[in-house]
Write a structure and sequence with these properties.
The chain is of the alpha+beta class and 205 residues long. Helix content is 49%, strand content 13%. The protein has helices at 9-37, 43-62, 82-99, 140-173; strands at 3-4, 107-117, 123-134, 182-183. The strands form two sheets. The protein has a two-stranded antiparallel ribbon with strand order 1-4. A two-stranded antiparallel ribbon has the order 2-3. Helix 1 (9-37) runs antiparallel to helix 2 (43-62).
């Protein structure tokens, strides 16, 4: 069977929805791994859990991040129970104010003076020391809520993607032969070179 890559607007929108579904499914996968690893709190595993927790939050928020592709907005929560919108705001704030930027008190470094009494009875400060504390990862019940949130949003996206797929099929069937761009389906879709990192999907920086 031959393939033809579709580049009209509806096909690109459908491709974006597939990408969003991938982000949400990956979020769920990360949450499952975190929940399975929560029993082991060795230093090495805590470092892995921290990375997985950050990855899960970032992956979820990508679905709502404006950029070169279609993204979701808060309207998707209008038909859902209010706790999903509340959980969404918590996860978004966690990404914006802790993981991406150090804003809220989930991360703090305090500087302390070392004080001693000298031979003359006066207080002396021989040195200072730091104390750094941060939230390494979400507690299991919060991971469960993130997993449930991603799953519920995924259901809503699938409801949008189904009709969009049918629209793409209908438009594709009406294309003239001259408009069909045959493809092997094996062409390289992703450019991971250093030169590509600053470019947008349309090739502009």
């Amino acid at each position: 069977m031959n393939l033809a890559r579709l580049n009209f607007n509806e096909a690109r929108e459908y491709a974006d929805l597939i990408g969003i579904q991938h982000d949400l499914r990956t979020t769920i996968d990360y949450c499952d791994v975190i929940l399975n690893k929560q029993q082991d709190r060795s230093p090495n595993e805590e470092l892995v859990l921290e990375g997985l927790c950050h990855a899960a939050v970032i992956r979820y928020c990508r679905a709502f991040s404006p950029g070169a592709r279609f993204h979701l907005d808060r309207k998707i929560f209008q038909e859902l129970p209010s706790e999903y919108a509340e959980d969404h705001e918590f996860i978004k704030s966690l990404r914006d104010k802790y993981i991406a930027h150090s804003v809220n008190p989930f991360e703090e470094c305090a500087i302390y003076a070392q004080i001693r009494t000298g031979e003359n009875g006066k207080l002396e400060i021989p040195n200072v020391q730091s104390r750094y504390m941060w939230m390494r990862f979400l507690e299991p019940h919060e991971i469960q809520r993130l997993k449930g949130l991603a799953g519920k949003v995924l259901e809503s996206v699938e409801d949008i993607a189904g009709p969009k797929q049918q629209t793409v099929i209908e438009i594709a069937r009406k294309l003239h032969e001259d408009e069909i761009e045959f493809s092997s389906g094996t062409e390289k879709l992703v450019d991971v070179s250093r030169e590509a990192v600053s470019k947008r999907r349309n090739g502009k920086k």
